[in-house]
Amino acid sequence: MIPTRNTPEVLDRARELVVPALRAAIDRLSPDLRPIAEYHLGWSDATGRPSGGNGGKGVRPALAVLSAEAVGADAAFGVPGGVAVELVHNFSLIHDDVIDEDVERRHRTTVWAQFGIGPAVIVGDALLALALQVVLDACEQNSLRGAPGSKNNSGRATACIVDATAAMIAGQALDMAFESVPSVDIEGCLAMEAGKTGALLGCAASIGAVIAGADGHDVVALDRFGVELGMAFQAVDDLLGIWGDPAMTGKSAWSDLRQHKKTLPVAAALATGSGAAEELAALMSLAQLSDDEVARAATLVEQCGGREVTTSEARFHLDNAVASLNASGLKERARDELIEVAHFVVDRES
Amino acid sequence: MIPTRNTPEVLDRARELVVPALRAAIDRLSPDLRPIAEYHLGWSDATGRPSGGNGGKGVRPALAVLSAEAVGADAAFGVPGGVAVELVHNFSLIHDDVIDEDVERRHRTTVWAQFGIGPAVIVGDALLALALQVVLDACEQNSLRGAPGSKNNSGRATACIVDATAAMIAGQALDMAFESVPSVDIEGCLAMEAGKTGALLGCAASIGAVIAGADGHDVVALDRFGVELGMAFQAVDDLLGIWGDPAMTGKSAWSDLRQHKKTLPVAAALATGSGAAEELAALMSLAQLSDDEVARAATLVEQCGGREVTTSEARFHLDNAVASLNASGLKERARDELIEVAHFVVDRES
To answer: What residues pair up with A329 in beta bridges, in sequence order?
Structure first.
């Protein structure tokens, strides 16, 4: 195992840059929607009173800021990208909770469970549209200021967000389709995870560079880094979803198995076709699993090598991510910080 | 009353251009989502068998095609704009049906009622992302082909769609907020309708010109035309929602009153503060209205002048729309066809 590391300094630095800009963006929402968005982001409680949440680990904003710095631009070019990616991410969380009928997220009642399905649908829609407005406005302002490389890049910056969003939606659709089939092969599982998680992290890790006017190899290397990191991120998520410490993750023990999620450890275990895999398949076909059954299922996934395959997968994509950066001509300091964030993501326990 | 006119030829002409491109766009959706979108568009039944629907009157595609021709560009420049606007419109219909819990649209079961809330949410999201991809791809292709004025307009074309979408979402949020208040003033009602309907028609009537590289006064005039036409369109919708012929509209008689919708005729009637308005307010506060009560409410709306105000409003915005075009230097033939479409929209009976 890789030793647990300290939280990279860049996460705090990026949060301090991006959160005020995110708040300014949320202020543009109509007064009917803003309180719901602020609730979801943990900035207020359901009655609108301010609360202390800061909205997650801040990996995406850090990637966006570093992506600008990696091509020699000021961190400020990464800020609108970080805001946009956070908005898209939160749009997807709000809609996913509707789709999955999840009533709790980050130890709080989900938006649809708190405010109703209609408000959750519309506020998610609003966050997606807002994300694009933030990017378009930033590109226009950079262009008006005559920032270097800022001409004619609003299309590329928008495409970065839109293509990632479309891939994420396709991944979510695949995830939904998996619910109604008895088993999923490893390739299908990885394709789903590349869409659901990889695409938006690829965008996060390159959009600051695109907004700053970079092009070509640097942007490709950064996007590749983000996609690979997204795959590693998701593999770790899958591990934590089964073997994570409930006190750290805020989820019940073996929660993904309880919910019959066909994540990579399960897909890899079932693919072995062994006797243990058959026993696992039988358990996973039950409508509801007892505590004993879910513990047994977790043991079987591990016996079939599902945990090991997934740990290797996380390591493999982390290595690919780092290799992508080493092959490029990016600024050294930002590159080192990107690598630090990547290790943090893979070593995390929640 | 304005006499009922024939269907403008441009509606068929634009449909023949836009529908194949719309089908090509829908083909890009993931296989999990495509059948649901095709069902919603009336192209197939719930089992995936082709059916004969062509998806509405085709006003938006016609506006998009004419907006390109109005600035002297080929109709082809309007086609991706028409596709994008249709996709955004259908995204909003699918989500609105979830939000309003409507089980029937265009004489068919709505998407969420047929496939479930999750699929309806995700397919709507996918259509919105696809709309932006269509516009971005078209701008990139035009730029690669060296089309005149095509450099650097992808940002403006995307902003056209995104800003209209954001305004539409804010209008829908306002509409939802109106459900929980006893009455709505006329200004609030018009602001909601400008968002819900005006913004996207403004986009439809200008995006072809933007994609073709036009700028300045022509685009402003076309956008203004569309926004005003949208307001007229919505006023007519409000009239049909109360006094439309059920055989033509496919809705029950006085359907908007049954659903307690606070449309312009109702808002205008209540604003008079007369005795009849008080009786109307009392009826509208009932949880459910009998047939006699809903008929009485319609009579009261008319007695209070709500029907007349709304008819005048439609006429007023139609005149504004036409005046906007007359003040501009647009191509005469396209301008005449835009005016023809505008009259068709206002004179329609369904």
So the answer is: none
Chain A residues in contact with B158 (beta carbon < 8 A): 132, 136, 154-155, 158
Contacts of A132 in chain B (CB under 8 A): 132, 158, 162
**A162: contact with B, CB 8 A cutoff:** yes
Instruction: Enter the tokens of residue A212.
Output: 């700053």
In this complex, the residue of A32, A98, A129 whose CB is nearest that of residue B162 is A129
A90 is a domain residue: yes
Question: Could you give the C-alpha distances from B314 to A135, B31, B174, B230, in angstroms and in order?
Answer: 36, 42, 21, 9
Number of structural domains in chain B: 1
Tokens describing residue B15: 């449909």
Residue A2, domain member (yes or no): no
pLDDT tens string B23-55: 999 999 999 999 999 999 999 999 999 987 766
Under a CB-based contact definition with an 8 Å cutoff, are residues B193 and B124 in contact? no
| Structure tokens that stand for A284 in this block | 């996973």
Instruction: State the pLDDT confidence band at A178, using cuts at 50, 70 and 90.
Output: confident
Is residue A1 situated within a structural domain?
no
Residue with tokens 């296989």: B31
Residues of the domain holding A255:
9-347
The ipTM, to two decimals, is 0.94
pLDDT, tens digit (0-9, with 9 covering 90-100), for A198-216: 999 999 999 999 999 998 8
Q: Which chain B residues in 185-214 lie under 8 Å from chain A, judged by CB atoms? A: none
pLDDT computed for residue B5 by the predictor = 58
User: Which residues is B105 bridged to in the sheet?
Assistant: B108
Cβ–Cβ < 8 Å for A126, A132 = no
Which of B97, B142, B153, B162 is most worth mutating to test chain A (most A CB atoms within 10 A of its CB)?
B162
Two structure tokens written together for A240: 């934590």
Mutation site for B-interface testing, chosen from A162, A184, A200 by largest number of B Cβ within 10 Å: A162
Residue B205 lies inside a defined structural domain of this protein:
yes
Q: What's A251's domain CATH number?
A: 1.10.600.10
Nearest to A88 by CA among A43, A42, A127: A127
Q: CB burial class (10 A; 0-12, 13-18, 19+) of residue A272?
A: middle
Identify the pLDDT of residue B214.
Answer: 92
pTM metric for this prediction: 0.95
Place of tokens 């439309």: B244
Non-local (6+) Cβ contacts of A31 within 8 A are: none
Nearest CA-CA partner of B90 in B165, B198, B10, B27 = B165
Q: Which of A42-51, A65-74, B127-136, B295-304 has the lowest mean pLDDT?
A: A42-51
For the stretch B73-91, pLDDT in tens is 999 999 999 999 999 999 9
